[in-house]
Write a structure and sequence with these properties.
single chain; 153 residues; mainly alpha; Arc Repressor Mutant, subunit A; 6 helices
Length: 153
């Protein structure tokens, strides 16, 4: 099947362009892709514990501590006492964090509309279904343990 490699190459190109666009958007802010992802999840979930953030980001609690420390130092988030559990701390967006995530939402909406400008509804429906199928397969591949290449295993 000769058509599969050009499709994969195009998907890879799109992923890299999106990463480059995000990097350009946050130049000079001190935000990395990991910090941006944490802000996005905090925006989506609302105030939550570091454990909940670790789960949402699929990283260790230790990683989240480092990300929250950096975001707190940058003024994007703050830690507050949990209202119902005095052992827990909630991570919340500050005014700067809320403003930044609002810009992220606006940017996401603008880019999305520009990328599909001129596409008909049928075209968008088909594209969405095709991308869903590709995303589903990628999730399966990522979550499936690959066989060991070690002959002794």
């Amino acid at each position: 099947m000769a058509g599969h490699l050009p499709v994969f190459d195009r998907l890879l190109e799109i992923a890299l362009l999106i990463q480059e666009d995000l990097a350009n958007f946050f130049t000079g802010t001190g935000l990395t892709s990991s910090r941006t992802h944490l802000l996005w999840e905090l925006h989506r979930l609302g105030p939550c514990t570091q454990q909940a953030l670790a789960s949402a980001l699929n990283v260790t609690p230790r990683n989240v501590t480092g990300l929250v420390d950096a975001l707190e130092a940058g003024g994007f988030v703050e830690r507050r006492l949990h209202p119902n559990d005095r052992r827990a701390t909630l991570v919340t967006l500050t005014e700067l964090g809320s403003k930044t995530t609002a810009e992220m939402v606006r940017g996401r909406e603008l880019i999305a509309s520009q990328l599909v400008a001129g596409f008909g509804e049928d075209h968008l429906d088909r594209l969405s279904r095709d991308l869903d199928a590709i995303a589903y397969r990628l999730h399966e591949m990522v979550n499936t343990e690959r066989p060991s290449t070690d002959a002794t295993a």
